[in-house]
Amino acid sequence: MVRFWILVSLGLCCLVAPNDRFVRAEVRPPFKTGGIYEDEPQLLLDESERSDASVEQGAVVPAQAVDERYRLPKTSVPIHYDLHLRTEIHRNERTFTGSVAIQLQVLEATSTLVLHNRALSIASAKLSSLPNGVTGTPTPIGDATFSTDTTFEHITFTSPMLLQPGYYLLEVSFEGRLATNDDGFYVSSYVADSGERRYLATTQFESTSARMAFPCYDEPALKATFTVSITHSATYSAISNMPQQETFNEDAMRTTVFQRTPLMSTYLLAFVVSDFQYRINGPQRVYVRPNAIQEATFALEAGVKILKALDDHLDIPYSAYMPKLFQIAVPDFAAGAMENWGLVTYREQLLLFNSAVSTYRTKTNIVTTVAHEYAHQWFGDLVTPEWWEYIWLNEGFRTLYEFYAAHLAYPEMEYWELFNTQVIQAAMVPDALATTRPMNWNAATPGEISALFDRVAYPKSGSVLNMMRHVLGEENWRSGLKVYLEDRALATAVDEQLYTSLQSVIEGKNVLPGDVTVAQIMRTWANEAGYPVLNVRRSYDTGDVIISQERFYSDRKVPNTNVWMIPYNFVQQARADFNEFDDFQWLATKAARISTTVPANEWIIFNKQQVGYCCVPYAVRNWKLITNAWWENCAGCIRLNRALLIDDANWLARSGRLDMRVALNLMTYLRGEREYAPWTAASVVLSYFNSRLRGTAAYHDFLLFVDALIENIYGMLTIDVVSPNDTLLHKYLVQTISTWACTIGYKDCAEKTAALLKAEVASAGQTPVHPDIASVTYCYGMRSANDAEYQYFYRKMMDSKNLAERTMLIDSLGCTTNKEYLMAFLTTALGSGTGVEINYSADERRRMKQDVYSGSRAGVDALIDFLMDPTLVNDFFSILSTSTLNSALSAIASRTNNEEEMNRLNALLNALGTRVSSQTATNVRNAAQTNVDWANGFEGLMLSNFLAEYVAGIETDTTTAPATTTTASSMSSTTAGPGPVTTTTAAPPTTVTTTTVRTTTEEDGGAATIGLSIAALLVSITIHLLG
């Protein structure tokens, strides 16, 4: 399952912008959540609401206590479910009825059968024996009594007689209500072109919600077969995991019966009742709402290509187990996507593509999400983890193949290039905390299980598996996976069974040293929390290198006893072959000495292409050798390792393992950098500094520092035109650099974005901004927008039926620095004082609030003003809840950098009074004060000192940023994929136009005099659009 996280707070994104806008809107869509905004700042809870997450420094995270009472007893197991449901969702009837006949096997004598049930009303239950097996005629036993334990979500059926080991039939009739929280069997809806709201019933069962649709054995190991039938309106259709077997009508209702499934877990069952239409290619279909049918073509193409790529790669045809594979875009869907076997469900943003409005990032997200879910058809569906403790056997493989299968299907698109920055580096930030967990981690309650779908299960596990793929070699990797999948097909697995399968294909091949096994290696990675630093210390006299390991913590350096089996390799400056992976060596002790012939005047770099899941600190001399070499010619080190070294140096400096000045000096080579991967790693670093320094005395120097870094690359890019020849990575690069240019005040950037925005408005949309540059253009163009332009984009957002475009427009409207516009935007989000219920989703309302404070300090001030108004804060509180208010306060605190801003925050907390608990208010103040104090702390002083010295050494003044004159095609050429990586660096531009860097710390965004309230205008637009 794809979790829909946005990793803003940790800077773990493919584009980390200096404001929060594009970080949130454009990152890869990871994982399952209860909504869009689990990336909002950590809520500042009362101490009584906190769990004790502290651990002893240097200690391994302790095993989590698990309450086994949540598990079902092992007295019986299911064999087959015959499930029938009836829904009248076509008329928005939320009640559904059903019956299920469960063929089961009693394993030991018992008088009770314990299943799962959540909120279903049981009408009747009866038991029969099956003395001749599951195919024989049932012999009635009698009615079963039943009782429900809501704490453990168990329902106990008590038999009128003792059930001896054997086969039985349990028949249950029940009634339930469709949920409204995108979980279980739930209701969704969309608005047709006629303006009518149409309803559908759909499912999301992972991880513990099949029990909301029917009583069942809702644990992954308790696999069974299913026959599903659904009675629904004859004007609607029903789809499920298997193809339709037959239908029959009765009055205005139709019953659709589906073929019997293979053995599968309950959480993978799925069905949808809707009036959707579909596009088809052989056994694959894509279902969408009727008014989006033109946007389904690309997802179908991607599905066909990716399924073939995985069939060929794994050498186990999907069709050997399942006859069809449908995808469906669900309007209301909390998870990013869900891998139900044969019926994959998605958020609309991750499946629908409209070339007129969808960006290159949307297209990338669609391809990688389809790849992720299709990989699940083998890893998770065909072979399922025995328990949630091993969920990484699902999500780790799918995170790896999210990019690898995308590369196999579209090798020309360079998708694999995104793996390091979007997966490996994203995983390492939270995994460097003391509170992280190991990959193997037990759980029992639904909440504990849901919490396992985290950055350890996804990017960390995917990174470790990618490391093992390189260690074993591609041929052995594929052969080992085939053994694993065939041995465990239609069954469950634990980690040791994967290790055994991989080991079986390398016996006698000398792939691993001595008697070392796959299991021994993987246990150190799957059972240990965190990851290692591989310390490298050179003897420049002898050439010897001493390497050592210890656990890396991002906020401390403490002794620890952790030992991983670390595969490592290295290159030297004169023979820098970064594409060779037959040279792994191993560190399985705390330290070792290795001999090299590297001359003292050459750099040495460990961890080729960041294949190893570790961080590598060097002594200062080696860092200086690297920096000096990169100043002369950075192409001597491939772009993936340049990105790695920027990322490593940043975190090593912030953890106290490296002088901050060394890390910053390394970044100065970026004046000659032309590739996306290093720039996105650098953007993470710069974004952190930007957030810390804004509003402080050192911010002016920071702006000049960024100006010096980007001036050359900005002059080589065309930011206002998209060429058909632009590569994917080039588009990422353009967005990264243009965002920084506009943020630090390049006049050229501001003028071009404003011109594009105004041209679209003036033509009434006939000359729209190209989707691939729209997010930057709209956001920064909005900063100079007038009333008519702001209203145009508000109307465009309200008109849009493409959720990805709608989201981008909402983000852009929050970019303005005009406080009146921002207040109006917040007002419409809540419907406050308008007398109109504006038709935003709950996610959109929360997003609008987040967009306001993320865009600029002017947005933070606008939000403070909004919350200071007693009437408006009451609406905010009632519509968006206490937790959303707390997260808003946490966001304001994280953006408080000086005494004036601290005073504003204190005034807000005083005005809110009892709406905020005293402990929450204290936590908010403490967090803000920590920010204010940072500038005068060690890290802040080191940074400001470096910047002051750097700026003093710049010979030019602050008006040196060149404007674009060259075309995209003159920039660079990159080779995609997990094979050899090459880099070609462009020549510098021959013609530039000077622009101005804005060096003030904040735009005042002075609002123009407005004769008619902008809020009233926005409301009037909404009323008109809603008819």
From TrEMBL:
PANTHER family: AMINOPEPTIDASE (PTHR11533:SF290), PROTEASE M1 ZINC METALLOPROTEASE (PTHR11533). Zn(2+) binds at H372, H376, E395. The record marks Y458 as: Transition state stabilizer. Its EC number is 3.4.11.2. It comes from Anopheles culicifacies A. Residues 962-995 are annotated as: Disordered. Residues 298-525 form the Peptidase M1 membrane alanine aminopeptidase domain. Residues 1-25 form the signal peptide. This is Aminopeptidase N.
